[in-house]
Design brief:
Belongs to the glycosyltransferase 77 family. With 379 residues, the chain is an alpha/beta fold. The protein is built from 15 helices and nine strands.
């Protein structure tokens, strides 16, 4: 009898715990969701448990985490002291992006960098390796091959630039823009002092005196040659006015394959500068610190005379992916082979899409020559 009476007594606590324990567990989950779910809107909360695995992200990971990642979220995540460093790049130029990032990391400014991906391939790759530092602003462009200077693909990419920069200013941040065929040798921010609206570099190869004027350079036949590839803009009404005018100038001259000189964003930028001369406070950066590629890579005497003053080197005045790569290698500025560990993206496989495309075009050109056609020049 005693054993029969003990059996229901021993069972009661177990059933009580099951019912009430389940209730308490559900209640705890609801409380946790109520507290932490709102925090999931924060980019930091989203990214903190992600790894930089070399394996490709799953489709659900890609779509849910990056396709809807907004410019506002991205800028908020990377901004430091109210400033964002921006580049706009497509997947074939991933090695150049990595090279640029290594040089920025050496100056301790990499956490400010926001990569505006022009295609989903680059968006996913950067955010896989470096979560939160890439955003795509639709529409996405074709990622299959590097866009050659003068092509419609090149124009489509560069013509979007001023609107991207304006959008970031409208969010309340200062913004520095760089092309990724640049290398930082020193910290450029010490040259961005004062309250000017916009800072830029000259694109001319003529040597200026070290104490040259920092105003808008004089025009040649009504045309100024300011480089749109390195710009720093403060979040001011003057800077916004300049960008709005730049957007207008680009829209007024759309790309056309029939034009003798195909347009791109830089002439439009120069026209915008001239048309806002008395409304925008501009500052021309020192030539010795921010030389064009036509000066730095082609005038050894000047380089020696200004040694130690160079801050950002631009690999322009040369056309073609492989040509830019070789020039960087020849001058000891191609960093990814030996210093990939200094990049936030780590070591990446070189992208060969552009080489394959160039080989195909050259092959087609040779066939045309053999058939009496005109050979095609590849930029």
């Amino acid at each position: 009898m005693a054993q029969q009476q003990q059996r229901p007594i021993s069972n009661r606590p177990i059933s009580f715990i099951n019912r009430n324990g389940l209730f308490l567990l559900l209640l705890a989950l609801l409380v946790l969701l109520g507290v932490y779910l709102p925090l999931s809107e924060s980019p930091l909360f989203i990214f903190q448990n992600r790894t930089s695995s070399s394996s490709p992200p799953s489709p659900s990971f890609v779509v849910s985490d990056w396709r809807d990642y907004s410019l506002a979220q991205a800028a908020k995540f990377v901004a430091k002291n109210g400033t964002v460093i921006v580049c706009s790049v497509s997947y074939p130029f991933l090695p150049f992006l990595n090279n640029w990032l290594i040089s920025i990391s050496r100056q301790k400014h990499q956490e400010k960098v926001l990569v505006i991906a022009e295609d989903y391939a680059l968006l996913y790759k950067v955010n896989e390796k470096w979560p939160g530092h890439a955003v795509l602003i639709p529409p996405a462009l074709d990622p299959k091959a590097a866009h050659h200077y003068g092509s419609q693909g090149f124009y489509n990419l560069t013509s979007r630039r001023p609107q991207h920069l304006l959008d970031i200013l409208e969010l309340g941040y200062n913004v520095m823009y760089n092309d990724v065929d640049m290398v930082w040798l020193q910290d450029p921010f010490k040259y961005l002092q004062g309250g000017h609206d916009v800072y830029f570099m000259d694109d001319m190869t003529a040597i200026k005196p070290l104490n040259h004027s920092h105003g808008l350079p004089p025009s040649w036949n009504g045309v100024t040659y300011v480089c749109s590839c390195m710009i720093f803009l403060r979040c001011t009404s003057g800077a916004k006015l300049l960008l709005k005018k730049w957007v207008e100038e680009i829209r007024a001259q759309p790309w056309s394959n029939t034009e003798a000189k195909k347009p791109h964003d830089q002439p439009a930028f120069n026209r915008a500068l001239r048309k806002t001369t008395h409304q925008v406070d501009v500052y021309l950066l020192p030539q010795s610190a921010f030389p064009s590629g036509g000066l730095y890579f082609k005038n050894k005497k000047w380089v020696n005379e200004t040694k130690g003053k160079h801050v950002i080197v631009h690999n322009n005045y040369i056309v073609g992916y492989n040509q830019k790569l070789k020039r960087f290698q020849d001058f000891g500025l191609w960093l990814v082979d030996d210093f990939s560990h200094e990049s936030p993206l780590g070591k990446l496989e070189l992208v060969h899409e552009q080489n394959t495309e160039e080989k195909k075009q050259k092959k087609r050109g040779r066939k045309q020559t053999e058939n009496g056609g005109q050979n095609q020049n590849i930029l």
